[in-house]
Amino acid sequence: MSTNERLSLASNYISVYGSTTNEDTHGSHKLSSSSSPSTVFHISPPTIRESIKIILSSSKINILLIFIPLGYLAHIFNWSDNWVFILNFLAIIPLAKLLDFATEDVSLRVGETIGGFLNATFGNAVELIVSVVALMEGEIRVVQASILGSIISNLLLILGMCFVAGGYYHSEQTFNQTAAQTTSSLMTLACIGLIIPAAFNFAVKSNFPIIDDGIPINGLLDLSRGTAIVLLIIYVLYLYFQLKTHSNLYQGEADDDDEPKLSLGVSLFLLASVTVIVSFSADYLVGSIEGIVQSSGLSKTFVGLILLPIVGNAAEFVTAINAAMRNKMDLAVNVSAGSSMQIALFVTPFLVLLGWVVGQEMTLYFKSFETVVLFISILITNYLIQDGKSNWLEGVMLLATYVIISLAFLFYPDNLS
Q1: 152-162 pLDDT per residue, tens
Q2: Between residues 72 and 417, which one has the greater pLDDT?
Q3: For range 23-33, the mean pLDDT
Q4: How far apart are the first and last CA of the chain?
């Protein structure tokens, strides 16, 4: 029997499956759950071949998967750093979307609580992998710029595009005001966690200019590590708030129209395999940054803050824009602003503690200009989402802010504090 025939028969007997007593389509008699097993039909999971077809057709972005082997070949045969960077840059974009696809498929099968935890954990997996690789190689400036860039691009670029795209199809859109304000308040707390180390560094250097360099650095490390622990605790409490005590606030953020497309085993295998592939591509990408900085004249800050977040946020960009166009603004705001919050409260402090373990002096001290930029980004986002409504003009404001910041970092040298 073909798959289409099984689907047809299953739809005809839908009133039988999973019910105690139901009327047939003519209402002439009732069928009991004790009916013969032959009247209950189960749709078999997709085969391996069907699963591969589903995965490859899940997004148009998957056409970029051809750049995965090309990126590996560029590294193996020692092509120029420019080619290594570009090819692996393009390769990670579809991998980020596949990671999002696999996470969503698993989440739909394991239930709301575990699914929410998986989305929170793997939602920024690409940014985390790229940052961990850069941290292991001692590229702390790249790590910090990538973190800041991910936060800013989610808040300004992706959320701005959501407001513009949604406002084009709908005059005015609404979203859960309480959930949005909770997210923005947590972002403000995370911003405080970055401003205080910057203020501490400024105060120490201003009042003790002749002090040995090692002393204020050690103090900054201790402050950053302590603050990182506090932020991680807040993140865990937020997960408990979102998934347990106030889950009703976030029920509208799930896309209830979706159903699992793959078997659980295939989804988990896809999740694991894509994570491994991303780690290799990220390793080659980070390793080429030094060369591309020297050949192009771009600063490491610009590469990390503007270019790398485009890779990591590819999945969020597609998901959020599609949600906004379908008038699912709770989902769009959660994907964009919520992703920024997760990076600030989870990824950033996690990297600080990881640096402590592996012997890298990763701190929460961002350069003064970068701290100001983060504060401005959070400030304008808070103003625009506090009323629980959005339109295309508000999106243009966010995009304009992002363009100004991008221009500023294009001309901002790395050697300034």
Answers
A1: 998 999 999 99
A2: 72
A3: 39
A4: 70
- Taking only the tens place, the pLDDT of each residue in 262-296 is 888 888 899 889 888 988 888 898 888 888 888 87
The tokens describing 51, both together, are 């699963």
Total residues belonging to the chain: 417
Reference 271, options 53, 111, 125; nearest CA is: 125
Give the helix/strand (H/E) hosting 30: strand 30-32
Structure tokens at 73: 């070949």
pLDDT at 217: 62
Identity of the residue numbered 353: L
Alpha carbon distance 290, 129 (integer Å): 18
3-state secondary structure of 390: strand
Q: What angle do CA 92, 98, 100 make, to 5 degrees?
A: 105
3-state secondary structure of 83: helix
- What the chain holds in terms of domains, given with CATH numbers, is 1-44 (no CATH), 45-410 (1.20.1420.30)
Token representation of residue 187:
């972002």
- What is the share, in percent, of the chain residues with pLDDT greater than 70? 80
Contact assessment for residue 55 and residue 95, using Cβ atoms and an 8 Å cutoff: no
Grouping H, G, I as helix, E, B as strand and the rest as coil, residue 173 is: strand
Separation CA 94–CA 115 (nearest Å): 22
Strand duo 30-32 + 21-23: pairing: antiparallel
Assigned token pair, 56: 């490859």
Nearest to 336 by CA among 129, 183, 117: 183
pTM of the complete model: 0.76
Instruction: Determine the Cα–Cα distance for residues 405 and 263; give it in Å rounded to an integer.
Output: 44
DSSP code at position 211: S
